[in-house]
Amino acid sequence: MLTAVGVPAVVLLAAGADAQRPVEKPAAAVVAEAPPCCMELVAPAPAAFSAGSAAGGRIEWVASSRASVREARALPAGVAPEQGLQVKTILVARAVSAIFPEIQSIGGVRPDALRWHPDGLAIDVMIPNPGTAEGIALGNQIVAFALKNADRFALQDCIWRGIYFTPGGARAGGYGHYDHVHITTKGGGYPTGGEVYYR
């Protein structure tokens, strides 16, 4: 039993808590590498956290099932307006803000003929200087990051520079999106107010 070695039964496994940015790759290799994401809950029993521990963005010592000790960090709100976004869309928006601090604008809910933005299922990650080599590389990294974490984000697709990316593959066409990366999730429902999004 874990308590025999003085480790709490609350279990969180860091899936790359010290996220690093990938080396820039050409557009053809956009999904080859991406920075890791977030934290995964691996304990079958629910954890009892006080409101104060999560509100400060930190939870005191938690341990993995392998008895290693790690510190979990809550993702703060990022640059995206979260009003009307669903929980998986909020998670990807916060993760992008945390991993890519050069992103200064992320659009969310807006009127549209298609349902994804109005239903809180999509965000638009605005790329600074999108036509430059640096801007294109940044957009490629964001697409790669989203695809690498597709299961966690319940990712449906990304659109960037005329290419429609899904977890199952990509196809080129007249998809536009040359100044921003469009990211669509499957939603996960609307927040109830008690959610904490972990890095």
What is this structure's SSE topology?
Elements: E1 12-14, E2 39-41, H1 51-55, E3 62-63, E4 69-70, H2 87-99, E5 106-107, E6 122-126, H3 133-148, H4 150-153, E7 155-160, E8 163-166, E9 169-172, E10 180-185
Antiparallel strand pairs: 1-2, 3-4, 5-6, 6-10, 7-8, 7-10, 8-9
Give start-end ranges of low-pLDDT stretches: 1-29, 38-70
Strand tally, please?
10
User: What is the domain tally?
Assistant: 1
Decide which structural class fits the backbone.
Answer: alpha+beta
Residue fraction in strands: 15-25%
Oligomer: single chain
Characterize the overall form.
globular
Distance between the termini: 27 Å
Helical content band: 10-25%
List the strand order in the largest sheet: 5-6-10-7-8-9
SSE string, helices as H and strands as E:
EEHEEHEEHHEEEE
Gyration radius, rounded:
18 Å
Number of helices: 4
Biggest β-sheet strands, sense, barrel: 6 strands, antiparallel
Average pLDDT reading: 75
What does this structure look like?
- It holds the Pfam family VldE.
- Residues 82-171 form the ARB-07466-like C-terminal domain.
- This is ARB-07466-like C-terminal domain-containing protein.
- It comes from Mycolicibacterium chlorophenolicum.
- It contains four helices and ten strands, in the order ββαββαββααββββ.
- Helix content is 19%, strand content 19%.
- The protein has a six-stranded antiparallel β-sheet with strand order 5-6-10-7-8-9.
- A hairpin with a 5-residue loop joins strand 3 (62-63) and strand 4.
- With 199 residues, it is an alpha+beta fold.
- The model is unreliable at 1-29 and 38-70 (pLDDT under 50).
- The longest helix is centred in the C-terminal third of the chain and has 16 residues, at 133-148.
- The protein has one domain.
